[in-house]
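pasting input
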Amino acid sequence: MKKNLQITIPELPTGKLTESHFNLVEDVIPSPAKGQVLLKNIILSIDAANRAWMQGTTYRKAIEPGDVMHGYSICQVEEPNGSHFKKGDFVFAEIGWQQYGAVNTHEITSCPDHKPLSHLLSVLGIAGKTAHHGLIQVGKVKEGETLLVSGAAGSVGNLVGQFGKLKGAKVIGIAGGKEKCDWLVDEVGFDACLDYKAGKLGKAIAQTCSGGIDVYFDNVGGNILQSALFNMNQHGRIVCCGAVSLYDGQPLAGPMGIPGLLVVKRLRMEGFIVFDFPDKDAEAENEIKTWIDRGQIKIYEDIIHGLSEAPKALVGLLRGENRGKRMIQVTKI
Amino acid sequence: MKKNLQITIPELPTGKLTESHFNLVEDVIPSPAKGQVLLKNIILSIDAANRAWMQGTTYRKAIEPGDVMHGYSICQVEEPNGSHFKKGDFVFAEIGWQQYGAVNTHEITSCPDHKPLSHLLSVLGIAGKTAHHGLIQVGKVKEGETLLVSGAAGSVGNLVGQFGKLKGAKVIGIAGGKEKCDWLVDEVGFDACLDYKAGKLGKAIAQTCSGGIDVYFDNVGGNILQSALFNMNQHGRIVCCGAVSLYDGQPLAGPMGIPGLLVVKRLRMEGFIVFDFPDKDAEAENEIKTWIDRGQIKIYEDIIHGLSEAPKALVGLLRGENRGKRMIQVTKI
């Protein structure tokens, strides 16, 4: 009899997340209740936000100890159970870290028809739309401006940089380690990239962004945010997309200069999530598709095979080991 | 021979500002150079921002040790010196803390015709426009929303509260001491006021703003900002107008929850100064005048007589002793 492989989180981490926080268990494949369909997990998205969900209620419900680890996936309908879906349909669902899940039909969305499917989680999915909405709707980047992006090698960061270049901005990345920085400049096309592990980041930002920063796209928070803050131009915008440096430990004090520098420099600092701009999704998708069709975007995906690799993949992502969008191919198709 | 009384600041404070940081000196009345007019100081504005100018370059040049203390006044033209001004004209100028000053003609603006003159520094001047622009242009307050205002008894704060009520918001103030809080509720018309000196401010905010805060108008920064931040509603706006709790000492770390809470709650935090909205000045003035004409605004002014009182007036303002707009009547007219 087929089993359902699951990864649970028996206790929530208070400090750094490690692989030992997770348990690999087997359960029976559930039967969908009325109003549910049975889904098979195909590709699971691995995101820094997964760690934030362990810290309490955010824009979604918190992960509770003992839960099957929460996660967002592309799935295939296994048992439509009388719904309007057909067996084999590809759908987006929060099925979690398991091979099969019974999910409420109204919480499922159909995938658009696109090959490869993985693009629907990366450049044409949450990562791409997050980068686009953050840069355009929140950051309101303009041609000729200087754009600084932290977490630049990550799923969102590398796209923010590429989209910024296409919008005519000067793009400076921040990433950890010389290799990643070289890759961002030589391969991805950033104008420059600063290695925060090399120290003296504030000075490096001041030198590289000698005309100051107009838009800072922040994926990390903490000291890097502080260094950026002190180099912002008047009327600059700080796009608060994530705070990965703060997810994996105890809460810290915020950056110095808040709110003083916000007043003096008339800065706007604004948080958002990708679901805040439903009326702009089509616009973003169309622009990204046009760029892809013209060969103007390089798509970086970091696909790891097998559900059992998910804990290691998330822990590694929080340590900054990925380049581009990390995902788990749960089922080969 | 008539002398020019001046107040200088021989050394900049590193900690709390005291009256002993200032010197009262006498100088000759200057002769205006080409392109300058000689002005007589009539009413000097005393503002928390005066202290911020001692901390380095802000949106204006920093105060240097030995300077005549910087300040903004309503003046009267004493010697037009060939300019288009006439002797006796009332003008706005950054003449500083002195009785007479020679100021560049292009840095002077004519006062509108209004009696009493003091209103041009309070409700119809910088204080009123700061309150209006901050609340409407930055805070975008809407009817039925909950508005929290710190520094509520101050020149800007009391007007933010009154304007907020007129816009249909529920208005909660934060001020120091029971007396000021009672005054804000009983006299000024706030719905409630919280005494930050009573402790447990976060809890008090949570209880009083039980539906959460939609707009927080921040005049103080520091711990009060942090308490507000944790009680913001999703898509709330934090209007960063000033940081008086931080002006008078060493820089502190910023509030916890930045940037994490900004992302999770999709908050916008935005700094501004009154000069950022020149195209909205007329609109603000017209609305404020309409409210005054209808008797819907109470105007609180705290006018102290004599230039030599200015150091004590500023030090006292930083300790929160004023109610409404504090000014120095330098010359009786």
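fyi The two ends of chain B are 21 Å apart (CA to CA).
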